[in-house]
Design brief:
Strand content: 5-15%
Distance between the termini: 26 Å
Number of domains: 2
Order of helices and strands: EHHHHHHHHEEEEEHEEEEEEEH
Shape: elongated
Helix content: 10-25%
Number of strands: 13
CATH superfamily of the largest domain: Glucose Permease (Domain IIA)
CATH architecture of the largest domain: Distorted Sandwich
CATH topology of the largest domain: Glucose Permease (Domain IIA)
Largest sheet: 7 strands, antiparallel
Structural class: alpha+beta
């Protein structure tokens, strides 16, 4: 279940005893209370038993399935197809996610908030069509747009194993469950779920495909052992591809852009792994760098500054909150699996202050004077990618 909202707490703000290079004390972060997802499996007399093969963009066929299932989404086939197609996603995959998360929205709590996809936790929509459009854009921009186009890779961010808001371990079954429902709809769960790769996987209405071997999520980066370390940039000039902000240069001078007393945003043990891509920014991605780690890695303040929630538009772009420095620079973080006490709008933090725990994929971005600066060179100069 993905989280896209900046959480609030009134508790006192903890600060690590040391912000210098070296070992930092582990931080105990309480998991927020979150309703469990139903995590149903087809074949138990529920709405998902009505799934059958349909062509990727057959809106009428999708509507027929939803009608047989008694789903509140019945009649939304055209919206599902249009929204998913605009995002480059196979519409059947959107249906498969709704099947796994909320039994095609026949799960009563999902109906009260018009949320068939388990977005949130607990995101409320005015109408379920708004949730369909939001989910399709989210998948297109922040999953497929970041290179996560297969069900296991999508699941590693959408429903990370070990997340604090999944105490029952339901996320362990996300990739296998979605794969099963996607295959029942005629999709190939072993291929990317993009529309261009799935156009040829349709089948005749009423046909039953061979059940696939459940997809296995990829191994997360090694968590490591020992105490998490906060790594602070040592002052060496980052290696940039060029003078532009998209290449890591300062927008005013063209010199490699840096932040004084910059700390790597994730604190993991010395033998733990953090992976991220290098190179210039990808067009349309606002220079956001996803930092992949083992789930529940400690997230820390990369610099001194004040925390502010992102706007709704910024949240849709993948930024949950900003950390704004006194000089006006600001770094943005994606949503966390859980937040440390006191992490709320207006809180003033120092480099190394614990912010919470990562889902296993932490989005990180940087802006200077309104320009998006590629953070990867400074990240690499601080802690190279595994």
């Amino acid at each position: 279940m993905p989280r896209h909202l900046f959480a609030y707490s009134a508790a006192a703000l903890p600060v690590l005893a040391s912000t210098a290079l070296g070992v930092a004390a582990a931080v105990t972060v309480p998991a927020p209370a979150t309703p469990a997802r139903p995590g149903v499996v087809a074949g138990n007399g529920n709405a998902n038993d009505q799934l059958s093969c349909v062509a990727p963009q057959d809106a009428a066929g999708i509507d027929a399935i939803l009608t047989r299932a008694g789903s509140p989404l019945a009649g939304d086939g055209r919206d599902i197809v249009a929204s998913a197609t605009a995002a480059g996603i196979d519409p059947r995959f959107v249906v498969a996610v709704a099947a796994h998360e909320t039994m095609l929205m026949t799960y009563a709590p999902a109906q009260t908030i018009n949320n068939p996809f388990g977005l949130g936790p607990g995101m409320r929509f005015t109408h379920h069509r708004d949730a369909v459009r939001y989910a399709a854009r989210l998948l297109g921009r922040h999953y497929v747009g970041e290179g996560r186009s297969t069900i296991p890779l999508i699941g590693s961010k959408w429903a990370p194993v070990g997340a604090a808001n999944d105490p029952a371990g339901l996320n362990n079954h996300w990739a296998g469950g979605v794969s099963r429902y996607y295959a029942a709809l005629g999709g190939d769960p072993h291929q990317p779920v993009t529309l261009d790769r799935q156009r040829g996987t349709s089948c005749a209405p009423g046909a039953t495909p061979t059940s696939p071997t459940p997809a296995t999520p990829p191994a997360a980066p090694a968590p490591g052992t020992g105490t998490p370390q906060i790594v602070v940039w040592d002052g060496r000039a980052p290696s940039v591809a060029g003078p532009s902000a998209a290449e890591g240069g300062d927008p005013a001078t063209g010199a490699p852009a840096t932040i004084s007393r910059f700390a790597f945003p994730l604190a993991v043990p010395a033998d733990g792994q953090v992976r991220y891509t290098s190179g210039p920014c990808t067009a349309g991605q606002a220079c956001t760098t996803p930092l992949e780690s083992a789930p529940m890695a400690h997230v820390v303040a990369a610099t001194d500054g004040t925390l502010t929630p992102a706007t709704p538009a910024e949240q849709q772009a993948g930024v949950a909150f900003w950390l704004t420095r006194p000089d006006g620079d600001r770094v943005g973080y994606g949503a966390l699996a859980s937040y440390a006490p006191g992490i709320q709008g207006g809180a003033v933090v120092s480099t190394g202050t614990p912010l919470g725990r990562s889902t296993g994929s932490l989005s990180f971005t940087w802006q200077r004077n309104g320009a998006d600066v590629n953070p990867r060179p400074l990240l690499a100069a601080t802690r190279p990618s595994a």
